[in-house]
Amino acid sequence: MPRSTTAAARPVSKSKAKKATKKPIKTKAPVKRKPSTIPAAPKSAPKKPFPANITPMLATLADQPFDDAGWVYEIKWDGYRALALMHKSMMELRSRNNKSFNEQFYPVYEAIQEWGIQAVVDGEIIVIDDNGKADFSLLQGWRSEADGALIYYVFDLLWLNGHDLTGLPLTERRALLEQLVPTNDIIRLSESFATSGTEFFEIVKKMGLEGIIAKRADSLYFPNQRSKDWLKIKTSQRHEVVIGGYTRNKDSRKPFSALLVGLYENGRLQYTGKIGTGFNDKLQKQLLQQFKPLEIAKCPFTTVPDVNKPSRFRPNPPEAKAFWLKPQLVCEVSFREMTSDGVMRHPSFEGMRTDKDAIQVVEEQEIPAKARVKTKATATGQKLLTPAGKAVRKTMLNPTDKTQVRPVGGHALKFTNLDKLFWPKEKITKRDMLNYYYQVAPYMLPYMKDRPQSLNRHPNGITGKSFYQKDVTGKVPDWIATFPYHSDADGRDKNFLVCTDEASLLYIASLGCIEMNPWSSRIQTPDNPDWCLIDLDPDKTTFNQVIEAAQVTKEILDAADVPSYCKTSGSTGLHIYIPLGAKYTYEQSKEFARVIAKLVQKTIPGFTTIERATANRNRKMYIDFLQNRPQATLAAPYALRPKPGATVSMPLHWEEVKKGLQMKDFTIHNAMDRLKQEGDLFKPVLGKGINMEKALKKMQSLYA
């Protein structure tokens, strides 16, 4: 029977009067905002070639804060000093000892690449906590954005568009820099405060920050020099030291008991004490791995320290043996005070310093900072710290290590073969896939949580052999939840894997499951699905015909006051979900879907069928209602698909379900941008659920 074109053939839904005006959203990678205009360097700044080998100016240690006129103050950030060198094709993020930070802190490197200026900028790389406070221990262990919010605080501008700015006063350099700082989450301006130094210091001290930097407002920039025009005043005693050895106490089970450290003086390493606190067993094991290749027979210190020397606090110290190291490693230590013989009291390990060369670690003598002219301004009216802002997930795995262990939800997950190409043509790796699932997990978990999974594993990507796995008995870690079932094929009791949280979702992905296939029901109500499904499978029909079938389905459901939600399959078809609220059985859901499928097929019989057997379909589009059976699965919302282009099963606005929609509109590259823009469109699928009996009666009355 040919399809009717009369209005009677399709009851008009309540929503039909609302004309669809919204176009399909095709999101792209976000473009970072750049300054509207690049300021010109002042005429007083001489022209000079790009300074590719410049090193930063250093501050001198001062004993106390002061209130002199003509000084400004900044927070002393607890991180790594870094110069950003940006010139045409050369982009470099460099430490104070001329080591590249490009790979180690790749998000900052990517941010300076996107900055779009020709300049040399001075700043500090830190990791901040939720309150905006720098955490050096987090920076130490930072391997990917899952380890914390990485920030590059910039505070000086040395070269701009072919002009040397180092001979300009600090205030002029800062004024130019303020106009250049982009609006993104990584590069931030380190604020300068024209205020009372003593009051600013007290505020910073109460906040538990490392200290302040005092700078003459008219100071020039002297590369590779320690200047008294810049002073650092610390809220506690901290210093870099060189590790010259370690001890192990007799009968101790720890990897080592204390670090033996010192400072260089006239090229000779002077012993300054031993550090026995500030590290746990895990850190000690990591440090010992660094120590082993550096072990030597001869003590590197000028005088051999007595590692068993008693003190008034420990008159009978444990018997310790010393192991000597080549003096190449630098760490940071906090301590109460330095004794008259140059030994630290109560030192505590703060972290390793890879940004400083050992030979440059010398004792910093505090200079007196006598107060003279007091200023009236205070810092209380300005905000000192900026929190990380709304957490936006970026990457869990760093871009270099092929094998990585990451803590997720209290479990140590091991991710291997991360460089393996899962989409060879597109150069998309297993690492990229796992990072995507880490990003999308908060959106995807509601459709995965507490649901048994049918694992579709692609250990070698989309071009390799794949296989389905249902039974995971004895094959998964103890913390992974399972759900029992009985196999009639071999008469054995088996277990499905159950996704319960982010850790189990990422574990599934680590198995090479490019796509995720959850049940429609949860283990709490295993016989009652949360949604009813209509799967439009095109076979040899066009995708525009799939779109038309989806539109017809929606009109039928709208007429019966049944809410429905559509998503791309990520492969060739469309999936339509109807919320059930776990109030009905799988059998009821299937029969409800059968009624809908029949009505759709009756409306557009020319290219649709409800025949299950492929041979009987005559290459027509199959309206699949049998996906509403126990243990049947479809790709989850936001799941990747093992298809060319790394497409995603993406929820849609109904207004987007029209001619022009393409599967390739939604991929691993733009899915997160769309989610940030549109939010989770599928939330109502997990809502209260329809009244099925009422809906069936209405359909019968409309289509009798």
UniProtKB/TrEMBL annotation:
Residues 143-276 form the ATP-dependent DNA ligase family profile domain. It catalyses: ATP + (deoxyribonucleotide)n-3'-hydroxyl + 5'-phospho-(deoxyribonucleotide)m = (deoxyribonucleotide)n+m + AMP + diphosphate. Its EC number is 6.5.1.1. Keywords: ATP-binding, DNA damage, DNA recombination, DNA repair, DNA-binding, DNA-directed DNA polymerase, Exonuclease, Hydrolase, Ligase, Manganese, Metal-binding, Multifunctional enzyme, Nuclease, Nucleotide-binding, Nucleotidyltransferase, Transferase. InterPro entries: DNA_ligase_ATP-dep_C, DNA_ligase_ATP-dep_cent, LigD_ligase_dom, LigD_pol_dom, NA-bd_OB-fold, NHEJ_ligase_prk, NHEJ_LigD. One of its GO terms (biological process) is DNA repair. Signal peptide: none annotated. This is DNA ligase (ATP). The keyword Cell inner membrane does not apply. One of its GO terms (molecular function) is DNA-directed DNA polymerase activity. Gene3D superfamilies: 3.30.1490.70, DNA ligase/mRNA capping enzyme, DNA primase, PRIM domain, Nucleic acid-binding proteins. Its cofactor is Mn(2+). Residues 1-49 are annotated as: Disordered. It comes from Chitinophaga rupis. Residues 13-35 have a biased composition (Basic residues).
